[in-house]
Design a protein that fits this description.
With 409 residues, the chain is mostly helical. The chain is 78% helix and 0% strand. The protein has one domain. Helix 1 packs parallel to helix 11, helix 2 packs across helix 10 and helix 4 packs antiparallel against helix 5. The longest helix is centred in the N-terminal third of the chain and has 40 residues.
C-alpha cells in the first residue's frame, strides 16, 4: 500500500506537470518541480536535526521513568482498556504507558513532546511484532489514534488567528473540539471494523465514558473563561502538566537512589540514533509530497470540487478553506501557510478563515506521522493504516464544514 501511494504521488505530479506545460503554457513548471525535490531534501535534514534534541530529551526522561516504575504504573491503570483494543499487547507491557503519554501530549497540543513519545511507543510495539517489516494490528490502531487524536488545546491556531486580526481568536475552540472528537471516533471505528474489535464491550464503554466526562469538564471550564484567557490558560495547563511530569520522574528516581544522569544519557543516545535512522524514510515521503504540491495537483482538486459543488447548486463558501484541509495530511507547514493565506485573502473572521482554522486544529499530518513512526522501526508494509487514517481525515473535513456552518454561517 505504501509503495503504491508513494508512486502515485510521483505519477500524479508528473501528469499535472505536463498538463501545466502543454495546456496552461507554464514553461517553468519542471524547474519548479526539480527545485521542489531538492528543497524537500534539504527540509528532510532540517526536520531530522530538529528531532535530534527532542528525541534525546524525551527518550532520556522516558528511560528514567521506566526504571523508577512510573511507566509500569501507568500501564497497569490502562491495561484493561488496551487488552480489549490491542489483545496482542500483554498486560502491563511498557507500550501501554508510552502510548498513553503520546496521546496525552497530542491532546495537550505538545507537538515537540508527542513525536518522540510516539516513536518510543512504536518501538515498544515493534518488540511484539512477529513480522518486523509489516505493521501489526496494534501498531495500526496506535497510528490511526495518533493521527486523529483529540486536540484539547489548539493554541497555535489561536495565535495565528490573533496575528491575522481575528476579533475573538478563540471562537473556533468549541468547533475544533467537536470536529477532532468526531475524527477520532471515526478512525477508531474504521480500525475496529477491519480488525473485528468489539467497541461495545463494557470495559471500552466505561473508559470512553470517563474520557468524555473529563473532556466535557475541561470544555465547560474553558467555555466559562473570558475569550482572552482561553489561549493563555490552555497553554499554561498543557505546559504545567508536562513540566510536572518531568520533575516528578526525576524526584521519584532520586528517592529510589537511581543514577538518573547515566539513565538519561543512555536514553538520549537511543534518541540520537533514531533521529538519524529516520532520514531515508522522511526523504522518500517529503520529496513525493513536495512534488505533489509544486505540480498544482492540490489546486486542481480544489477547483474540481468547487465546480461540482456549484453544479449542484450548493454554496461554495467552504471551498476557499479546502486547500488547508487537503494539504494538512501531506504537510503541516504547507497547511499552516494555506491557513494564513486564506485568512489574509478572505479575513480571519470570514467563514473560510474560521473554517481553515478548524481544519488546521482538527486534522493531522497523516503521511508525515506515518513516515516518521513506521520509518523509526523499519515498517515497509502499512496494510490498512493509511485508508483508516484517511477516513478519519475525511470525517474531520466533512464535520468541520457542518460545524462551521452551524456556528458561523
Amino acid at each position: 500500500m505504501l509503495n503504491l501511494i508513494w508512486l502515485a504521488f510521483f505519477f500524479i505530479a508528473a501528469f499535472c506537470g505536463f498538463y501545466q506545460w502543454l495546456v496552461l503554457g507554464n514553461q517553468a513548471i519542471f524547474t519548479e518541480l526539480v527545485s521542489a525535490m531538492f528543497d524537500m531534501a534539504k527540509v528532510t535534514v532540517e526536520i531530522a536535526l530538529g528531532l535530534v534534541g527532542a528525541l534525546c530529551l524525551w527518550l532520556g526522561i522516558f528511560k528514567i521513568a521506566e526504571h523508577n516504575g512510573w511507566i509500569a504504573r501507568l500501564s497497569r491503570l490502562l491495561t484493561p482498556l488496551f487488552q480489549r483494543l490491542m489483545p496482542e499487547v500483554p498486560a502491563n507491557h511498557p507500550a501501554v504507558g508510552s502510548i498513553t503519554m503520546n496521546l496525552s501530549a497530542n491532546a495537550l497540543g505538545l507537538d515537540n513532546a508527542a513525536t518522540p513519545l510516539g516513536i518510543k511507543a512504536m518501538q515498544d510495539l515493534q518488540t511484539l511484532n512477529p513480522n518486523k517489516t509489516t505493521a501489526s494490528n496494534a501498531q495500526i490502531l496506535f497510528l490511526v489514534l495518533n493521527t486523529s487524536s483529540v486536540t484539547l488545546f489548539p493554541v497555535f491556531v489561536f495565535v495565528y488567528r490573533a496575528q491575522q486580526g481575528a476579533a475573538i481568536p478563540t471562537d473556533v475552540f468549541l468547533p475544533i473540539l467537536i470536529t477532532t472528537s468526531c475524527s477520532s471516533i471515526a478512525g477508531l471505528i474504521a480500525v475496529a471494523l477491519v480488525q473485528r474489535i468489539n467497541l461495545l464491550q463494557q470495559t471500552v464503554l466505561l473508559y470512553g465514558a470517563l474520557f468524555f466526562a473529563l473532556m466535557g469538564g475541561l470544555l465547560v471550564y474553558f467555555v466559562s473563561l473570558p475569550a482572552a484567557l482561553v489561549g493563555p490558560q490552555s497553554s499554561l495547563l498543557a505546559n504545567l502538566l508536562i513540566f510536572c511530569f518531568v520533575v516528578g520522574v526525576l524526584f521519584s528516581a532520586w528517592r529510589q537512589k537511581l543514577d538518573t544522569y547515566d539513565l538519561f544519557i543512555e536514553g538520549a543516545k537511543e534518541g540520537f540514533q533514531q533521529a538519524i535512522n529516520l532520514i531515508p524514510y522522511l526523504l522518500a515521503m517529503l520529496v513525493a509530497i513536495g512534488l505533489l504540491r509544486a505540480s498544482g495537483a492540490i489546486q486542481l482538486v480544489v477547483d474540481a470540487i468547487a465546480w461540482l459543488v456549484s453544479l449542484a447548486g450548493l454554496s461554495t463558501a467552504f471551498v476557499d478553506a479546502l486547500p488547508t484541509a487537503l494539504m494538512k495530511p501531506l504537510s503541516g507547514s504547507g497547511a499552516r501557510a494555506m491557513m494564513i493565506e486564506t485568512m489574509q485573502v478572505h479575513g480571519a473572521d470570514s467563514f473560510a478563515g474560521r473554517l481553515s482554522g478548524i481544519f488546521q486544529g482538527s486534522t493531522e499530518t497523516t503521511f508525515y506521522v506515518l513516515a516518521v513512526y513506521f520509518g523509526a522501526v523499519g515498517i515497509k508494509h502499512s496494510r490498512h493504516a493509511i485508508p483508516c487514517a484517511l477516513i478519519a481525515d475525511a470525517t474531520a473535513i466533512i464535520v468541520g464544514i457542518v460545524v462551521a456552518s452551524v456556528f458561523f454561517a
